[in-house]
Amino acid sequence: MAFECNIEARGKAHRMKLGIRLVIVSIIIGILTFFGILPSSLGWVLFGCAFAGGAFTIWESRMGWCVVRAMGFNTRI
To answer: Which residue among 16, 39, 65, 76 has the highest number of C-beta atoms inside a 10 angstrom radius?
Structure first.
């Protein structure tokens, strides 16, 4: 499957910033879970989801491809 570039430079930059923020938030959630501030089961699930979402968003920005736009939705950026 070939991925066609469907976002511009502004969209790539926006997705990269969003992905980095999500990865940072996931690391904070992981630390809070590790030290027992968040419940273990909930904390690790949140950590995994936030990290996976951030990593996917970073990958989207590097590829210049947006899954939402590929499904036919129009995005502002």
So the answer is: 65
